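Most newcomers find our protein records easier to grasp once they have seen one. A record pairs a protein's sequence with a compact description of its fold. An example says more than a description, so a record of this kind follows:
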Amino acid sequence: MIVIYTGPTLPVEKARAVLDGANYRPPIVRGDLSKLPRKTKIVGIIDGVFYSDSAVAHKEIIEVMKKGVTVVGSSSMGALRAAELADFGMIGVGRIFECYRSGRITNDDEVAVTFNPVTGEQMSEPMVNVRYQLKAAEHAGIIDPEERRAIVEMTGRIFYPQRTYENILAKSIEAGAISRAKGDRLLEFVHESPLNLKAEDAVLLLEKIRSLSCL
């Protein structure tokens, strides 16, 4: 049996298109792993609760791995815990995991978002996605490297539930980090060509688990 914890990063209907037949569950919270069915062989952690409830503990993951369960993480809480527990056998997948593992990013709020608890709809942008989108905008010639760095710095000052592109760019324009004309063009680019590194990494996790389940 395969159990996957996902949420706003990759909705279940999209996840099933990559890996059908898994048992999909909401973002993981502390205590969830103790309730796994005994026949569980693989656990995939994409999303997890950070602040509004107790986050899944390291020792919970270690205990379930000691029982022979393979645990794979990516994208959000999964990437963070996989980076912290790689030496204990947790498998990490994707660029966000690699960034945490290498120390290029360190803070929990790089991946934290707010979401509607009823619909699962994401209501703010994670820092990692903002970085990814801004790098693409730089490559497209919409902003220059200095402007990109200034917007990233501004994003880091904004409390994570308030990180929307509209708010980020409004504050960046107000601070003089970018002109209004460029801010408007950048917002247009974001809506026309949205990028989601967390979702890309989640797909990699599902593909990894699919390959593991075939062994």
Observations:
- The chain has nine helices and five strands.
- The longest strand covers residues 2-5.
- The beta strands are 2-5, 23-25, 42-45, 70-73, 91-92.
